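[Discussion] Sanity-checking designs against the backbone

I'm trying to build intuition for which residues belong where. Below is a structure token string of 193 positions. I'd appreciate it if someone posts a full sequence so I can compare it with mine line by line.
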């Protein structure tokens, strides 16, 4: 049974709690997939090849903004210098390590893994895998893929509920580079969706 929230504050707490539960479920699946591909994965601490300024949904941006705001002043100063440098790499990296690793968004958690998406219209499974880890002919099995459809649908659902209560556009994508400057995330103009 889904919990219903009445006030915006209650909904924010519920959606944020549910978002963290979603991350925990995803992390468990990532761990399983990682064990299956332990010999193929070259990703690890210090590997920042895929770390660029991705964009995230408003719910994720709010959680990340809180995390960035809680970093030590020296780390925040370093992130500000990274941001000022203006390159395409993620400004949240410090010495090739993610400064918000425990709170990183879903797109960052899944980088490097063999991701699968079901295309119901074509009745196929589309696989996206990092070429640094997996050659084009790598023999994936259904059990060795991280199927993202449920996780993405759940994220969409949580983001939609959170945005409605906050008066935000749920389909807005927020670049990671902009998150540190969002206090608070700007509401949408016009009627709530």
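Best answer:
Here's mine. Compare freely.
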């Amino acid at each position: 049974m889904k919990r219903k929230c009445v006030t915006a504050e209650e909904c924010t707490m519920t959606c944020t709690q549910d978002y963290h539960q979603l991350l925990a479920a995803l992390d468990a699946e990532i761990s399983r997939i990682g064990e299956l591909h332990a010999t193929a994965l070259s990703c690890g601490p210090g590997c920042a090849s895929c770390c660029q300024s991705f964009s995230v949904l408003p719910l994720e941006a709010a959680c990340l903004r809180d995390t960035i705001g809680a970093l030590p002043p020296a780390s925040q100063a370093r992130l500000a210098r990274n941001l000022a440098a203006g390159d395409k790499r993620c400004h949240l990296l410090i010495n090739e390590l993610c400064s918000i690793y425990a709170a990183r968004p879903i797109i960052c958690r899944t980088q490097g893994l063999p991701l699968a998406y079901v295309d119901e219209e074509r009745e196929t499974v589309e696989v996206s895998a990092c070429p640094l880890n997996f050659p084009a002919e790598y023999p994936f099995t259904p059990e060795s893929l991280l199927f993202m459809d449920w996780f993405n649908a759940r994220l969409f659902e949580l983001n939609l509920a959170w945005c409605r209560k906050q008066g935000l556009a749920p389909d807005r994508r927020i670049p990671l580079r902009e998150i540190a400057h969002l206090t608070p995330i700007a509401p949408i103009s016009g009627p709530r969706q």
